[in-house]
Amino acid sequence: MATEQQTPAGENSPRAVKSGVIGIIGRPSAGKSSLVNRICGYKVSIVSPYPQTTRTRIRGIYTEPRGQLLFLDTPGYHLSEKKLNQGYQEVVTESLPECDALLYIRDVTRPAGDEEAAILALVQNSGLPWVAALNKVDALTEAGDSTRPQADPAAASDGGKHAGRGRQSGGGRPRRDSPEVHAAKMAAARAAAAAAAAAPTPDPAELGWTTPGDHPPAAAVSISAETGAGVPALLEALFSVAPEGEPMYPAEYYTDQDPQFRIAEVIREQAIKRTSQEVPHAIYVDIADAEYDAASETLSVRAFLIVERESQKGIVVGKGGEKIKAIRTGALRQLKELFSYRIKLDLRVKVQPKWRQRAGTIRKITRGWEQ
Ligand SMILES: Nc1nc2c(ncn2[C@@H]2O[C@H](COP(=O)(O)OP(=O)(O)OP(=O)(O)O)[C@@H](O)[C@H]2O)c(=O)[nH]1
After folding, report:
1. What share of the chain is helix, strand, coil (3-state, %, to 5)?
2. Using a 6 Å cutoff on CB, does residue 107 contact ligand 1?
């Protein structure tokens, strides 16, 4: 199967001098997924308002002339407040053998409580080199300091998750732009993202950050995953702690997930977004087959949206098939941005009672872990 679309950084196809696995650690909602998506420039983690959406530990890969960074985006949704310390311990312990360095992300808009102290202690006790990112400085700006960089309202509306990519705006049926308009919009978005990234951020000391403990970070950088401010300085720090080495993946990869898994995730995200609250956890996507035709550069995919009950099927199919059509169209729009080749999608809904209790099915939907 063909590889996924090149990242802007991948166009340079550099000879990497640094190659590091960076474990991202931080409280739930600190902005871990937003930052990985911002750095990698493409959607890596799926985003939804429902908890426990992230079923797998998803990696983002960033390649540029300085080298390659592989990010482990640790899911935090499922950790109850009570179990938080224990949960993080497990995440850190599981991740440690794979990591060369840690990136600790702190949300500066939330007061640091015991949980933050516990996470920070784990990071320090890991013995690994680490970098601190003080995130969401744009929110402080919005609170009243006009000397600080303002959030880009366009980026703010989607949490920066679609950075640098053209998006449809407004309600109603989205219109497709002509190639010229699309190119102009992409160029404007890239320029805006570059300006935002270069915007000054406050000194961490101004935010009340003091170097903690006896294993301090290699650097502390204030950033906004949403606007991109401070992200170049953060990358500089991450490359400084990454070991020298050959790249782990080809430069054009931005995730090591299997394309079929990514397609399934995109379809699932669309289904979650477009169905009512009781359905999301009852949905999984099975890719029945996927065949690539090199001549037409087309991947033909047959996929099933699987639900547990007939009533759920009715919801997912919608009146006159409206809902499933919208899910399919929405998924195709996303996939077009993620893959360099064309994707044909045959999408159907199937009832499979109690699929959540079947070991084989569970293995299938969590296979992102096993790659
Ligand atoms: N204002 C502002 N909001 C941000 C920023 N980064 C992330 N957010 C918002 O914070 C919320 C949580 O962001 P995520 O990226 O999902 O956080 P996470 O750490 O991956 O969350 P878990 O997966 O639950 O651990 C979302 O609503 C984001 O839009 C930022 O730099 N500024």
Report:
1. 40, 20, 40
2. no
